[in-house]
Specification:
Helices cover about 40% and strands about 15% of the residues. By secondary structure, it is of the alpha/beta class. The strands form 4 sheets. Strands 12-18-17-16-13-14-15-19 form an 8-stranded mixed β-sheet, sandwiched between helices. Strands 3-2-1-4-5 form a 5-stranded parallel β-sheet, sandwiched between helices. Helix 8 (about 110-120) packs parallel to helix 10 (about 145-160) and helix 10 (about 145-160) runs antiparallel to helix 11.
């Protein structure tokens, strides 16, 4: 409201007069003077007119007029009161008035549009570019939700600048329609399983009779009941070469069906592949080093003893070893006979820790899955096997464990099914380390893997929607391209895990359902491209937690900028706590470079803070706040920045920023490559322009010429 009130004070009659005069004036000098005056009035009509003039610079033959257009546009778009609220309040001015396009009306997701605008060089960006190409060719009549437009403005402002964000919004509004719905009129009971953002987009699509929605968040729309939605890749795949409006509309109408068929194909491939591993193993019963299990049998006698016999055969020499054992239990007898036969091939060094059984089907002939855990040389190996014959399930699971122990190079982990994992988590010790659950779908199961040991497991492309992974140990697990949406990862250990491409929408990690960073160990984790808007004390706590998990062997370094123009923050309890984290990093041989932004005349307290950090081993540079107000187009006099760069695992690098705008604070923690690289570049420029300090010289003397 404050921005609107301030702008209302501008005399509209003056700007209307100037705009009318500009329309008629032909003299270049007078036109330049009028345009210069317009730069003093950041009104909607003025900004729109200057933008139109800028887009038609070639029609202005006079270089001086062109210069004044650029300068005045810079002034009005750089005005502090020109922001997203201003544009939303004046949509009727900035929206295209001649939009009578007959092309299919399509809602373009803000995330997709942001990929296009920020030019991230990825496969996703190339698909976003192709979709936006159809928009620019007027083959799609594009819409965007009001919340999406707000998101784009804030993200571009944080990454670039407010002026850049303002210019981007003006350009978007000239080509894209903004869909608006009244939140109070949305019946959220119609959307019990989707978030508010998704519900709003569906309501916009229905209100404006849109042909469909193209979004990179297509999975989130599955539960919305809206059929005409798809990802850029799926849309482009089914669109093909024919990009006519009719073909686009037809493709959008079939997107829901196409998405379902796409999922069915993936599921059929999964079902076709699953049983082949077990069947191949059973048909051949290969052991290792050219040996196979030629035969095994079990006989039960009346004296309550069970006899088991195992015959091993060399496939090349036909050499054989036959061993038998007598035990009270069938499984005990079979395992013992196999161990005695195995002793002819290797020195027995393993110890059977546990055997667990789970029924996958009810009834007398139901399938069972057996999990075996053996230990050798202080290491644990876990294998599982599913079979309708209970003794074969026990034996084959044990045989696989022997291959893993004595011939690890010849051991190939099976791809286990969803039902195996769903049943196994209910029984015995919750230890599944090293198992291959690639592409499992636990969305419809009970999916409780809390406290489970999942070290080194393969969950690539798995659907772990809403899975409970509280306190789970996922060290080294492959979660690439897995759907972890709404999963509970509170206190989970993701050290050295691969999260590339993982869907982390609404990931739950604590009682407030905040972010991926709460209570989760992320040491050297290959992180996805996530950006989290967070400010205040919670941001500092999370940054501190992430810094404590830095691996000293990872060749990491910290690059930081800290503004000390308003108060000495390091003296308060939060600052002291963060200083302790800094000291721990230095003790662990992790280098820190910090630029302090200082007032023109630093106080003794400023010098004391700087001296303490220099003495601790931090590389320190200083710059006057006046010089920091414009470095590469950024204002740094009211900004704090910290970059944690991991040279060993670059995808574990992150950047955190705090921005003060008057009394309003904003901030983020980002693992997005483009954000990290941008912040590193800006830090480098700021570092080069700053005065480097040394413990060998008097700090006061070094800072004497700071403001000159």
């Amino acid at each position: 409201m404050e921005n609107t009130e301030l702008l209302c004070e501008i005399p509209t009659s003056v700007t209307n007069g100037l705009l009318a005069q500009l329309e008629k004036e032909q003299d270049s000098d007078i036109r330049a003077e009028i345009i210069r005056k317009l730069g003093e009035y950041p009104e909607p009509q003025v900004i729109k007119k200057l933008w139109d003039l800028r887009n038609n610079l070639e029609s202005e033959s006079d270089d001086f007029v062109q210069y004044e257009i650029k300068l005045s546009l810079h002034k009005v778009t750089n005005h502090p009161n020109i922001n997203i609220d201003f544009f939303l309040g004046n949509l009727e001015v900035f929206q295209s008035k001649d939009n009578n396009s007959q092309a299919p009306k399509v809602l373009i997701d803000a995330d997709l549009m942001e990929e296009f605008l920020l030019r991230n060089q990825t496969t996703l960006n190339s698909e976003a570019t192709r979709v936006m190409g159809l928009v620019l060719e007027r083959k799609i009549n594009p819409y965007i939700g009001e919340m999406g437009l707000i998101q784009i403005w804030h993200n571009i402002k944080n990454l670039k600048s407010q002026e850049y964000a303002n210019r981007s919004i003006i350009e978007l509004l000239s080509k894209i329609n903004v869909g608006q719905v009244n939140l109070k009129e949305i019946d959220l009971e119609k959307y019990p399983n989707v978030n508010l953002t998704t519900a709003i987009q569906v309501e916009i699509a229905r209100k404006y009779s849109l042909a469909g929605i193209i979004t990179i968040r297509d999975r989130e729309f599955i539960a919305s009941g809206y059929p005409f939605v798809g990802s850029p890749s799926l849309f482009l795949q089914f669109l093909g070469e024919d990009t006519s409006p009719a073909s686009i509309e037809r493709t959008l109408k079939n997107l829901g069906k196409a998405a379902m068929e796409h999922e069915k194909v993936k599921l059929n491939q999964l079902l076709e592949n699953e049983p082949q591993h077990n069947l191949f193993f059973e048909d051949n019963l290969l052991l290792f080093q050219g040996w196979k299990i030629e035969k095994f049998e079990i006989l039960c006698a009346n004296n309550n003893l069970t006899s088991a016999t195992v015959i091993l055969c060399n496939t090349k020499t036909q050499e054989r070893y036959t061993e038998s054992a007598f035990k009270k239990g069938s499984v005990d007898a079979l395992f013992t006979a196999f161990n005695e036969a195995l002793a002819h091939l290797v020195e027995i060094k393993h110890h059977l820790k546990s055997v667990y059984l789970a029924n996958l089907k009810e009834g007398q002939q139901g399938d069972v899955t057996v999990k075996v855990m053996v230990e050798y040389d202080g290491k644990k190996v876990i294998t599982i096997h599913t079979h309708e014959n209970i003794l074969k399930a026990y034996f084959f699971a044990y045989v696989k464990a022997m291959i893993a122990v004595y011939a690890p190079d010849e051991y190939h982990p099976d791809i286990h099914s969803t039902r195996e994992l769903t049943y196994l988590h209910k029984i015995g010790e919750r230890d599944f380390r090293g198992l291959n659950f690639s592409q499992v779908n636990l969305m419809d199961g009970e999916a409780n893997l809390s406290d489970a040991k999942l070290m080194g497991c393969n969950f690539s492309k798995a659907n772990l929607l809403e899975v409970n992974l509280t306190n789970a140990d996922l060290t080294g697990a492959d979660l690439s391209h897995a759907n972890l949406s709404k999963a509970d990862l509170t206190r989970a250990n993701l050290s050295k895990a691969n999260l590339t491409g993982a869907n982390l929408t609404d990931v739950k990690l604590d009682e407030n359902n905040l972010t991926l960073l709460d209570g989760t160990i992320l040491t050297n984790t290959i992180m996805p491209e996530i950006n989290i808007e967070i400010s205040g004390e919670s941001r500092l706590e999370k940054v501190g937690q992430l810094l404590k998990h830095i691996d000293p062997k990872s060749q990491s370094r910290i690059l930081a900028v800290h503004s000390m123009t308003d108060c000495i923050w390091w003296d308060n309890p939060l600052g002291q706590k963060f200083w302790e984290v800094n000291q721990e990093l230095i003790e662990r041989k992790i280098s820190i470079q910090r630029v302090f932004i200082l007032p023109e005349v630093p106080t003794q307290k400023h010098l004391q803070v700087i001296q303490e950090q220099l003495n601790c081993g931090i590389e320190v540079a200083c710059i006057c706040h006046e010089k920091a107000k414009n470095v590469e187009g950024y204002r740094w006099d009211d900004t704090n920045l910290l970059i944690s760069e991991n040279l060993s695992v670059p995808r574990n690098s992150f950047t955190a920023r705090r921005i003060m705008n008057g009394q309003t604070e904003s901030g983020y923690i980002s693992y997005q490559t483009r954000v990290v690289e941008t912040d590193k570049s800006i830090f480098k420029d700021l570092w080069e322009k700053s005065e480097k300090l040394s413990t060998e010289a008097n700090i006061q003397e070094q800072l004497a010429n700071l403001s000159t």
